[in-house]
Design brief:
This protein is mostly helical. The protein has two domains: 27 residues; 35 residues. The chain is built from two helices and no strands.
């Protein structure tokens, strides 16, 4: 069991020390919450744009809406 859990624990510690801690030390304008919110808003706007385009095409061609 130690052969399985040991490497996972080492990987998790490495991830915390080398990825999560530096992300937490970023300035307030680049913190992960702001980045995630911006990505989600941009993705939602793009999806809504495509959805309106598909709805217009469906109305023209008589497909499902």
């Amino acid at each position: 069991m130690q052969d399985i859990v040991g490497p996972i624990a080492v990987f998790m510690k490495w991830t915390f020390d080398n990825v999560l801690v530096p992300i937490g030390e970023l300035p307030a304008t680049l913190n992960p919450n702001s980045i995630f919110i911006i990505v989600i808003v941009l993705g939602l706007a793009y999806w809504l744009f495509l959805q309106s385009k598909f709805n217009k095409k469906a109305r023209r061609e008589g497909g499902l809406e």
